[in-house]
Automatic annotation (TrEMBL):
Belongs to the class I-like SAM-binding methyltransferase superfamily. rRNA adenine N(6)-methyltransferase family. RsmA subfamily. InterPro entries: KsgA/Erm, rRNA_Ade_diMease-like_C, rRNA_Ade_Mease_Trfase_CS, rRNA_Ade_methylase_Trfase_N, rRNA_adenine_dimethylase, SAM-dependent_MTases_sf. It comes from Ideonella lacteola. This is Ribosomal RNA small subunit methyltransferase A. S-adenosyl-L-methionine binds at residues 12, 14, 39, 60, 81, 109. It is an enzyme of class 2 (transferase). Its EC number is 2.1.1.182. Pfam families: RrnaAD. Specifically dimethylates two adjacent adenosines (A1518 and A1519) in the loop of a conserved hairpin near the 3'-end of 16S rRNA in the 30S particle. May play a critical role in biogenesis of 30S subunits. Keywords: Cytoplasm, Methyltransferase, RNA-binding, rRNA processing, S-adenosyl-L-methionine, Transferase.
């Protein structure tokens, strides 16, 4: 019986073989590498991945799909909401003799309705990840890779570029899926930066939410008040809009708040 895509899970199954081949080439999995696929669905990407890396861990929320995936002995199936998965523990389990090191390659066609929460959920474990390749809504990929001064530049841009090098690889049209989504998609590569400023992540996230809460106004109307509440005594130019501030300056401000 054909599996019916479930709207509540944001399911759109990739069917274009040329696109699938291009994604697998971009991920470039090697035998023995710990690879984790989020949202394997019907296995369009799963099967060519496991053919390259020999064993694959998949995270699938849909109970029916998880049951089908378990029939493949080369797959380790984690039946769970990805937002509940501890990727640090997963890296420890899959990394063998490499405790604490970056070992995971993470990939997947992420559900578009919760793609941003998933990206933020993965942030604390970036140091355990070699790279990430995701299918996302093109608009989201544009925001992830946006430069200061552009309309797409925002909280997502700053928080992800602080920790990753972001590269938009190629676009994927709606007709590559069944059922077709109502938006264009894109493949993004996220490579954790080896050198980065350590931050208080929850506080950084709160700061960025405030900074971009009133995009059309100068920062003194939003971030300025928040910094006063934090009793910040340093200097920061608040006579700008948030979209004008480079990532490095936001990160430096977050570092200064650590004292």
């Amino acid at each position: 019986m054909k599996h019916q895509a479930r709207k509540r899970f944001g399911q759109h199954f990739l069917t274009d073989s040329a696109i699938i081949d291009a994604i697998v080439r971009a991920i470039d999995p090697r035998p023995g590498e710990p690879v984790v696929e989020i949202g394997p669905g019907l296995g369009a990407l799963t099967l060519p991945l496991v053919a390259r890396c020999e064993r694959l861990t998949v995270v699938e929320l849909d109970r029916d799909l998880a049951a089908k995936l378990r029939k493949n002995p080369a797959l380790d199936v984690v039946e769970s909401d990805v937002l509940r998965v501890d990727f640090g523990a997963l890296a420890d389990r899959l990394g063998g003799q490499a405790p604490g090191r970056a070992v995971l390659k993470v990939a997947g066609n992420l559900p578009y309705n919760i793609s941003t929460p998933i990206l933020f959920h993965l942030l604390p474990w970036a140091h355990r990840v070699v790279d990430q390749h995701f299918m996302l809504q093109k608009e989201v990929v544009d925001r992830m890779a946006a430069e200061p001064g552009s309309k797409a530049y925002g909280r997502l841009s700053v928080m992800l570029q602080w920790r990753y090098d972001i590269e938009s690889l190629f676009d994927v049209p709606p007709e590559s899926f069944d059922p077709p989504p109502q938006v264009d998609s894109a493949i993004v590569r996220m490579t954790p930066r080896p050198q980065f400023e350590a931050l208080d992540l929850p506080r950084f996230e709160a700061m960025m939410a405030v900074a971009f809460s009133q995009r059309r106004k100068l920062l003194r109307h939003s971030l300025g008040r928040w910094l006063e509440e934090q009793r910040f005594q340093g200097e920061f130019d608040l006579q700008r809009r948030a979209e004008e501030v480079p990532v490095a300056e936001f990160v430096a401000l977050a570092r200064a708040l650590l004292g």
